[in-house]
Amino acid sequence: MNNIGEPWMWGAFIVFVLVMLALDLFVFGGNKVHKVSVKEAASWSLVWVSLALLFNAGLWWYLSGTAGPEIADAKALEFLTGYLIEKSLSVDNVFVFLLIFAAFHVSPEYQRRVLIYGVLGAIVMRAVMILAGAWVVQEFNWVLYLFGAFLVVTGIRMLVMAEKTPDLEKNPVLKFARRHLRISEGDHGEKFSVTKDGVRYFTPLFLVLILIEVTDLVFAVDSIPAIFAITTDPFIVFTSNIFAIMGLRALYFLLADVADRFHLLKYGLAMVLAFIGSKMLIMPWYHVPVGASLAIVAVLIGSSVIASLIATRARQ
What we know:
It is globular, with a radius of gyration of 20 Å. The chain is mostly helical. Strands 1-2 form a two-stranded antiparallel sheet. Helix 3 packs across helix 10. It is built from eleven helices and two strands. It has one domain.
């Protein structure tokens, strides 16, 4: 059963996402300027992880009654593994977001608004990329091997570049934006644009938003092929990806003050990508079970987190 997503399931999930975004923006103060505390970030992280697990339990329960326990177990495990992979890889986004906000001296109270729009844009981009990727994989199965080779190369590149800090001033997107947009210098609070003498100018915060969106697009190119190594079911790929993205903002504020304590996590993420890519390349000869993939990814991430904490404590 390659596609469990019935039309009503897609519709219900999209409505759920829209409702949660509306609650975040208009009920829980997502559109108000304030600095997100660690306690608030931890609470929202717990909410999003709990919702993802509840969704998985509900999916298992529904499939048990309609498709049988064997398919229900397989799809629930695919979702859990895909969610763990996407959640882990989103940590790399956090490191880059920190770099961007620091480079532009964005105050903590304005970061939340940027990330809200960043999440909205990421959801749209990922939806398009996932649906396009699912169609390509279905029509041209050999593309999975290209994905695998790409992930192996990306993982090796991440290992080599782990200790290097990107130079944002040389970023081609930033250069293009500054060359073609009117940019107003100075601090304009949370505004993305201002009007001076009847002329519309974009603020530096708008440049930050562009970089956040482009960053997520770049990481999506890595993470979406990675989940296709676990499952080619579009519904599982889409839902696990979106749950990870919806919790990204809370994860950022949770790790913002302690990110330097997890400096070895990048190596773990690089090894995850290399493992997943290798898994895709050896599929004609050996299929790594989803359960084994889940265990290996968990060990790689867990080991890098523990190693980071030990190294940080020793350094202190």
